[in-house]
Amino acid sequence: MANPVSSSPSFLALFIVFSLHQLSRGQFVQGPSYSKFVVNATEMPIEDYYDYVIVGGGTAGCPLAATLSENFRVLVLERGGLPYTSPDLMSQDGFLATLMETDPDDSPVQAFTSEDGVANARGRVLGGSSAINAGFYSRADEDFYEKSGMKWDLHIVNQSYEWVERAVVFRPVLQNWQSAVRDGLLEAGVHPYRGFSLDHEMGTKIGGSTFDSTGRRHTAADLLGYANAANIRVAVHASVERILLAPISSPSRSKQGAIGVVYRDRIGLYHHAMVRENGEVILSAGAIGTPQLLLLSGIGPRPYLSSWGIPVVRHLPYVGQFLYDNPRNGISLVSPISLERSLIQVVGITNLGAYIEAASNIVPFQSPARSVFIRAPTLPLYLTVATLMEKIIGPLSIGSLQLASTDIRVNPLVRFNYFADPVDLERCVSGMRKVGDVLRSRPMEEFKFREWFGNHREFRFVGPTLPSNQSSDAQMADFCRRTVSTIWHYHGGCAMGKVVDRDHRVLGVDSLRVVDGSIFNISPGTNPQATLMMLGRVFRDKNDERPNEMAAMDTLKLTVLSISPTTFCFNISFSPIGMNSLV
Fold first, then answer.
1. What is the pLDDT of residues 23-67, one digit of tens each?
2. pLDDT for position 371
3. Which end of the chain has a smaller Cβ tally under 10 Å, C or N?
4. 136 and 526 in contact (C-beta within 8 Å)?
5. Longest dimension (CA), the chain
6. Could you report how far apart the first and last alpha carbons of the chain are, in Å?
7. At 338, phi and psi to the nearest 5?
8. d(Cα 166, Cα 139) in Å, to the nearest integer?
9. How far is 502 from 283, CA to CA, in rounded Å?
10. CA-CA distance, 309 to 405, in Å (whole number)?
11. d(CA 517, CA 540)
12. Three-class HEC string of 163-176
């Protein structure tokens, strides 16, 4: 028997419209499979024990946690919230809105501006920067494996990429702007055409995307769907304040070891996440968060830490050093024809030390203040803006990170020193000249406006334009310096061989490793997210390689006596109780 309300077409139509509106606003949100083991940090016990405590549920941290949960009890501590509760974040159309919505304490994007004056962003949400980026997916280049300083089994690397790709990677469908850029790159000499490829290959190609055919975003958090739910817990809104460290003695030497972390929940309560016997703390907080946490925990340059009043646990002078960010430069234009919203889908991998990429999006138009001729519109106006950009490889210019506060929630001070190395500047000049070649190609003609008088056609640029004399090195270099921005691929700060060894161990500190982009000395290929997700999967338990002095931990009993913003005090004694009875 039909429901009585179905006899009223107007009511049914109203109900459908209302339902679609509520769905678009994220009111009817069904969580993914991993949501059953995700909890708010306020629901966590004051103290608990795990085989692995992972700090950061980001691009590397989520696949790492899923992998380790196959055989071990794992806790992930993520300072942000859940991605799937934000409609803008989960939609390709909401990319710009997500980047622009920056709350100091709670938004998925934590904005910061480097000391160079360039605006930048950090992911503060489960999935990390994979939840706020442009979604481009491409594997690392061969040079990365050779120059990274890490040990790689390329068979396992490829298996790990495939594991990631089955869950979160899709083939994009090109529309007018991306198709024109592809054809323009080929006419500009970026050969050969590779078609759709996830591999890093010289030429022009269509890469993978973490947005599916409906425009819905998929993130590293989706890889938690592979996890053994019985062995894993993910705490969101969990801000890790310090790493807990204690001395470990053996007949041969004495050093410090990580025994857990202290984190704070949203209402300000402190919790202890401790590691069991032979357990480890793994930092996956990213190129900004990981060196910041090490410094605040007393691991870094002794004189610098002392100047902040931070007790020195381990003198490591290069924590926060060898930090890099790949500069981005480009041009933007409005189009006389309708354009799709598209994020990065096509890339030109040149032999010039630069990659050429493109995007198109709808942005709000603001009329000049107090304009005599333009009346302020009563409704918002929007423009479709197309962008053509280049990113240099490397880079070679070296930056650094310093503390701005002893509060982990405050962004540290970061300087990337863009174009300090002249080779980086030369690569930018070459890359922007190639952008100029693409603009002069025939596929770009349809994006020009016809002038009012005559048959002349010109681009209508938004923002800076390329110099008219693109053969001038000085003018092109000036353009690169004036228009530098970021493509959010910063890395380093915990350099391999200087802060961690080839097995990711923090030098001189037991039971503490780093698995994230802070260990990279070069950006992998056109986009790092594929490699970071692969890295989380590749990492395997190193228990068989652990030093013999871990046996000393079997009889260590520790009591946390007090907590202050800069120090943690411990009472340490030895008894035959083992690590599992830490109190």
1. 343 333 467 999 999 999 999 999 999 999 999 999 999 999 999
2. 39
3. N
4. yes
5. 92
6. 64
7. -65, 135
8. 14
9. 15
10. 11
11. 17
12. HHHHHHCECCCCCH
- Higher-pLDDT residue of 218 and 14 is 218
Asked whether 417 and 116 are in contact (CB, 8 A), the reply is yes
**Closest-CA residue to 483 (of 27, 109, 118, 175):** 118
Side-chain-side CA neighbours of residue 509 (13 Å): 29
Q: What is the mean pLDDT of residues 180-189?
A: 98
Cα(438)–Cα(443) distance, integer angstroms: 9
Catalytic sites, residue numbers: 489
Strands of 321-324's sheet, edge to edge?
Answer: 413-415, 399-402, 321-324, 491-492
Q: How far apart are CA 20 and CA 14, in angstroms?
A: 10
Is 39 in contact with 233 (CB distance < 8 Å)?
yes
Residues, the chain = 583
Q: Please write the tens of the pLDDT for every residue from 463-478.
A: 999 999 999 999 999 9
34-58: b (≥16 Cβ within 10 Å) or e:
bbebbeebeebeeebbbbbbbbbbb
What is the pLDDT at residue 388?
98
Give residue 378's pLDDT: 56
Tokens of 149: 């300083």
Q: Is the pLDDT of residue 376 over 70?
A: no
Q: What is the mean pLDDT of residues 554-564?
A: 39
pLDDT-above-90 percentage for the chain: 78
pLDDT at 581 over 60: no
- Element containing residue 40 per DSSP (H, E): strand 38-40
**pLDDT, tens only, 256-311:** 999 999 999 999 999 999 999 999 999 999 999 999 999 999 999 999 999 999 99
| Rg over CA atoms, the chain | 26
Cis peptide before 336 (omega within 30 of 0): no
Q: What is the DSSP letter of 134?
A: -
Q: Which helix (H) or strand (E) holds 567?
A: none
* Rounded-to-integer distance, Cα 296 and Cα 302, Å: 12
SS3 562: strand
How far is residue 83 from each of residues 89, 344, 398, 496, 551, measured CA to CA in Å? 7, 21, 33, 31, 41
Within 10 A of 171 (CB to CB), how many other CB atoms are there? 14
* Residue at 446: amino acid letter: E
Torsion angle in degrees (nearest 10) through CA of 394, 400, 405, 410: -10
Q: What region, left, alpha or beta, does residue 237 occupy, with left being phi > 0 and alpha being psi -120 to 50 degrees?
A: left
Q: Residue 4: its pLDDT value, please?
A: 35
User: With contact defined as beta carbons under 8 Å apart, do 507 and 499 qualify?
Assistant: yes
21: number of Cβ within 10 Å: 10
Q: Read off the tokens for 38.
A: 């995700």
Q: Is 155 helix (H, G, I), strand (E, B) or coil?
A: helix
- Listed in sequence order, the residues at least 6 apart from 347 whose beta carbon sits closer than 8 Å to its beta carbon are 136, 138, 204, 205, 207, 355, 356, 357, 526
